[in-house]
Amino acid sequence: MKLEDLARLAGVSKSTASIILNGHAERYRISEKTCERVLELAKKHHYVANAQAAGLRSSNSKLLALILPDLLHHGFAELSKHLERLARKAGYQLIISCSDDETEMEEKLVRTLTGRKVEAIISVSTVTDYSVYYQAEKRGIPVILLDRFQSGTKLDTIISDDHQAAKELTQTMLTGRPGAIAYFGGNQALDNCRLRFQGFSEALEESGEAENIATVHHLDYSVEAGYSMMKDYFRQHQSLPEKLFTGSFTLMEGVLQFTRKHLDKMPEQIDWATFGDSYILDLLPFTIHSARQQYEEMAKQAMESLDAKFDKREYQRQIVLSREIICRRI
Amino acid sequence: MKLEDLARLAGVSKSTASIILNGHAERYRISEKTCERVLELAKKHHYVANAQAAGLRSSNSKLLALILPDLLHHGFAELSKHLERLARKAGYQLIISCSDDETEMEEKLVRTLTGRKVEAIISVSTVTDYSVYYQAEKRGIPVILLDRFQSGTKLDTIISDDHQAAKELTQTMLTGRPGAIAYFGGNQALDNCRLRFQGFSEALEESGEAENIATVHHLDYSVEAGYSMMKDYFRQHQSLPEKLFTGSFTLMEGVLQFTRKHLDKMPEQIDWATFGDSYILDLLPFTIHSARQQYEEMAKQAMESLDAKFDKREYQRQIVLSREIICRRI
DNA sequence: CATATTAGCTGAACCGATTTAGCTTATGAA
DNA sequence: TTCATAAGCTAAATCGGTTCAGCTAATATG
């Protein structure tokens, strides 16, 4: 059923019907009677406006786009959930697309989404060259980068404070009794890896426990790296460290794989701190503290940035959120 | 940049430009030269067609919709990931919306999505009355229900075989050495809960170990229920069962919360079987078998059902997938 | 009674593409 | 030379709404 059919049934013009259905009746002085008649018929026939036609004419789409490297990552799923909810409450739908961490795919997605006239693109981006995003902004589509970005970008960004979080996380880990400390981190060429290590080091120096460092190991943020770093440590020391800092959730998984395979049980007195979080850490039978991104807050800020952009209130928002430190000492 | 501008620049008509950009040049005998000129200019100016306009005219949208109760659920996130990828490879984008398990929200979503002219709705549905989905189908939008549905529906469905999976999962659990068996399940008024228990019972009877059942407890599939059922068991027996069957992942979580709080360590010789799966189970320091839905296969079948519907090849597809049983004996 | 104002509604343009019948011009055949 | 055919392209209708200037009839005002 099209607007025209509905209008005919109600004995009014397309214009009148449209005006009523969009709630502009007052402004156009449409009489109560006519309104009721139209609305009732619309309900009766389950009339729903064609969003393509409406959007084309009034140049909106009520669509937002979210680009993620991978929807399966627990954190990104959480982010999606919150963004979707906020979008929905605000009358938008969310197109979620994955780049699979591939630059070309991401660029293709941005172009396609631009053509779809999404009203904003929110992206956990993998690219190093933002020109495709600048293109989008030039065409009037606001862009917000979450979680990561190349320094110097002119786009809106929202990230979490790695340095501060690493420091606090380390401090939490140190509140237990002293002992050998191991640090397993990622590629030091990357900003976030470096920041995490800096935070860790700072906390150690300030606490005066720097001499307890047994190992500092930088590899990369893969499960395999975690496994191999723990293997090395074990070969060297014939035991686990009393305190362990893993720079990512994946590293933690690697370490767990190793201990599951080679250890009878995890020592309960271990103080383990890791970046990345999951409710599952609450269930592990030993102490593991974590630093989690505040994805809900991130989603909220993203929507606020959008509001600001829609109203052209602010030129650029660069937001740094804190991470939540979760202390799980048993 | 609109098609018209591009056409003007290239010195051709809108029609010609459109024909070329859509790859119909051959059919319309547009010369090589003209094609090249148009395509080059399009690339140079990063021309992207307005999908609303194109879709309106040619009545397509290249949009698929996915409705989920909750995006955070690990299984649904996995399903989304696979569906998104398949959709993307087939030239579609995916609108993901959550119903938050609320009937009204789900119905509202279906209506909105209908108006958006999505080309299909794939739904993990919470409603008991499918009329809003039937409405959608009447308007030419195919619907596929995943994971759950009320019996008697005329919609396409894809689910997993709970009965068979429970049976196999129980058999896996029984391969260890005999001992006290506990079953923690959900509300027996629900089909899936009943089916799981039936499968469990059948396996026990066939194996002749039915007399080892220490407890059968039906409550509901909540974390709290898991906690409380294990608490009861522990109070009664002062120990854990040798074999434990939990009917859902959430129940498993509840049990883990209890053991983490009240037990020194999880006995390694426990044979635990649970519905629901996560990579995290690979990391737990004891044996926990699981039955996981084949979400990737589910996504694949869903897309195939869509193909069939688009071609009007089949009237109705009702698919039952097996669950994958993962044996994790340490 | 004439004119101004208001209430209530509508016609027609428009959004930006796709689609198809058909118009030129060039080429070939008779 | 003349007509048929083919090559290459375009004009105009169309999709289904929104938007706004403006029309008509009714009421108010002087």
Automatic annotation (TrEMBL), chains A, B:
Domain HTH lacI-type as annotated: residue spans: 1-58
One GO molecular-function entry: transcription cis-regulatory region binding
Keyword Iron applies: no
CDD domains, per the entry: HTH_LacI (cd01392), PBP1_FruR (cd06274)
Keywords, ordered alphabetically: DNA-binding, Repressor, Transcription, Transcription regulation
UniProt keyword Transcription, yes or no: yes
Transmembrane regions: none
Lineage top rank: taxon: Bacteria
Designated name of the protein: HTH lacI-type domain-containing protein
Annotated organism of origin: Endozoicomonas numazuensis
